[in-house]
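Subject: Sanity check before I submit

Could someone independently write out the structure tokens for this chain? I want to compare against mine line by line before I put it in a report. The sequence has 216 residues.
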Amino acid sequence: MTPLKNVMIIGTGNVGSALASNLARHGIAVQLAGQDLAKTREAAAAIGPSVRAVEPAALTTGVDAVFLAVPAEAASAALRGASQLAAGTLVVDCTNPLRWDQGPVHTPPAEGSIAAQLAKQFPSLRVVKAFNTFGAEFHADPKLATGAADLYLAGDDAAGKQALAALGATLGFDVIDVGPLRNAAHLESLAILWIHLATVGGKTRNVAFKLLSRAA
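---
Independent answer below. Compare away.
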């Protein structure tokens, strides 16, 4: 397994910036990418000197993984914009397709999930669904009152999930492999449930899902 030491995050919003902060704090080299380079530079500077602002088209073969922290409807375009991505690059889909109707409603593509859609559109890339079932607060710091938030991974690439699991553990998450890429649809549904609970459900954003065992 090759450790993920040099990553790109496409997206400079709350999730992208929070994840970049956590990665940088743990010694991971981060390139933060956005269409507006000036705003991307501001976001990177606010995090610290170990985060470098770039444009998506500047992606090189030296990137170990690319995290998509953009609106779901922009995920495909974001990867197309990263035209220099090498075959075999690990892509981590953090997105959730939804619309709002007195609460979040899951609006998946025909493939069942954004991750499955990306895998179909970009067959040379290794797509894993992860980092999508909690808010930016937990991307920055996964600690709960007891333990840590769960990080769920769905994908067909075993080596990619293994590398991402190691990174997730480094960032402080409890990592759980939930199976093949087809289960990415269930992670998106779980995210919609989290958004509902955090907003119209009144539980606030300071909650995260946790798989617990009754065994000692």
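---
OP: Matches mine. For the report I'm noting this point. The chain has seven helices and ten strands.
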